[in-house]
Amino acid sequence: MATTESGTDILIEADELNFQDSAGLVAGDEMPEIGLVAFGGDLKPERLIAAYRVGIFPWYNNDPILWWSPDPRCVLFPQKFRPSRSLRKSIRKNGYRFTLDRAFGEVIRHCARPHLGPDETWINSDMIDAYSEMHRRGYAHSVETWQGRRLVGGLYGIAMGRVFFGESMFSTETDASKGALVYLVDRLLEFGYMLIDCQVTSAHLLSIGAEEIPREAFMRILGREVGKDGIPGFWAPDRDAGGGES
Questions:
Q1: pLDDT tens digits, one per residue of 139-191
Q2: pLDDT of residue 55
Q3: Is residue 178 located within the same domain as residue 211?
Q4: What CA–CA distance (Å, rounded) separates 111 from 106?
Q5: Last residue of a domain, which of 26, 50, 69?
Q6: From CA 233, how far away is CA 137, in angstroms rounded?
Q7: Which structural domain range is residue 55 located in?
Q8: Rounded Cα distance, 74 and 206, in Å
Q9: Same domain, 108 and 186
C-alpha cells in the first residue's frame, strides 16, 4: 500500500487485502478532512469485509474505486429511533408488507436507478456484482416493501457483528422506503444490534432519525460491536410482516 503526498493510501492489486494503514488514520488527526482514505484496489469480498471492519466503505462513480471514512459520521441508533405516528399510519394505510432477504437482486437494481432514490446513484454494475456476492456469502441483506405483489420500496446493507452498514434505499410509493427502515430497526432490535451506519450525511437521512457523531466516537462503537456475534446467513423469517406489525 503506497501513500500520496496528501496522505491518501493507494491500494494495489498485490497488496495484503487489509486496511491497517487506513485504520490507523481513522483515529488520527492526519486523515484528510473530506474522509477519503484510499483509492484503487478491487471489490473482492475479502477487501470489503476488511474495509467495513475498520469503518471504511467504497463510494465512487468511475474508476478508480474511492474508499471513505467521513468525519462526522452519519448514524442511527436503533434504541433511539422513534418513527412518527403519521408514518406508522401511512404504513398501515398503504397496506405495505415487509420481508427480509427475499429479493436482494431486485432491491439493489432498483437502488441503482437514479430517479428512485433521494440522491444521485453511485451503484454501478461492479458494485451490484460485488454486493450480490456479499449477499450470497451472508453479509449483505435487503428489506423489501411490497404492495400486493409489487415491490415498491426497500433498502440493503452489510451486517457485521452487531452493526448494520446501510448502503442505499429506494421507493416508488409514499413512505415505502421509510417503512422498510422502520421494519429493519424493529428486527435489528430483536437481533440485539447496536448501530446502523448511514455513512454520508444527507437531509433525507436526518429527516428519518439519523444523526451525526464524531468519527472517533463512531470508531469506539465499531471496535466494541463489530467483533460480536451477529446473525449469520440469510435473514428471511418464517413469515412475512404486514404494516400493522411494524
A1: 999 999 999 999 999 999 999 999 999 999 999 999 999 999 999 999 999 99
A2: 96
A3: yes
A4: 9
A5: 69
A6: 7
A7: 2-69
A8: 8
A9: yes
The confidence score (pLDDT) of residue 71 equals 93
CATH code, domain with 12: 3.30.70
3-state secondary structure 32-96: CCCCEEEEECCCCHHHHHHHHHCCCEECCCCCCCEEECCCCEEEECHHHCCCCHHHHHHHHHCCC
Distance CA(37)–CA(6), nearest Å, equals 10
Model pLDDT, residue 76: 97
- With CA atoms as reference, report the closest residue to 98 among 159, 153, 157: 153
Q: Which of 56, 79, 109 is nearest to 218 (CA)?
A: 56
Dihedrals phi, psi of 35, to nearest 5 degrees = 95, 0
Residues 201, 105 share a domain: yes
Intervals of the chain under pLDDT 70: 1-34, 114-121, 237-246
Q: Could you give the number of structural domains in the chain?
A: 2
Q: What is the pLDDT of residues 132-143, one digit of tens each?
A: 999 999 999 999
Is 176 in the same domain as 55?
no
Of 41, 69, 97, the one marking the end of a domain is 69
Residues listed for the chain: 246
Are 239 and 151 part of one and the same domain?
yes
Rounded to whole angstroms, the Cα distance separating 133 from 104 reads 11
Q: pTM score, two decimals?
A: 0.84
